[in-house]
Amino acid sequence: MKPEKIMKLFKQRTSCRSYLEKEVPDKLLDRCIEAARLAPSACNKQPWRFVIVKDAATRQKICDNCLLPGISMPWLHKAPVIAVLCAKPETVTHKLAPMLSGVKYEIIDCGIAGEHFVLAAEAQELGTCWIGWFKPRKIKKLLRIPYNIKPLSLISLGFPEQRSEPRSRLTTEEIVRYDHW
What we know:
Elements: H1 3-12, H2 26-37, E1 48-53, H3 56-65, E2 81-87, H4 91-101, H5 105-123, E3 127-131, H6 136-143, E4 150-158, H7 172-175
Antiparallel strand pairs: 1-2, 2-4, 3-4
Helix pairs in contact: 2-5, 3-6
């Protein structure tokens, strides 16, 4: 892929908060999952796991019972897919190594896989929104997620009803320093 094309994809991707009530074909969803599967990870442990929620009644339960109070997300009710991004930590890489380094590798690894997922969605003209404002214990119980797997984020997915304008970003000069601070 040419650098211009990938940069255009990065620039056009925004958080979608307005979805059409239109089913996402499995073929498009499978490409998002495949993109996430190919993400790099610490020691190649690939701790990400996804629970894909397409059932309308289950999505409604997530919206009604599993979101934290205080931030209204009425648009989530219309998203035809909610992907629950989870981590399945491995003992050495994700539990012991962070004791020495202070780095939670499974969070980084799952973040990379999640971003692969949303960029694959964007490339297929689907909209997504990362959601961290939820109750992990309620999600675990509702979706019967095993004890050793922890929900990290929700990602809404669907065809955008309208595209958001890209929000302002810090300049390159504000985010990078070369050689020293």
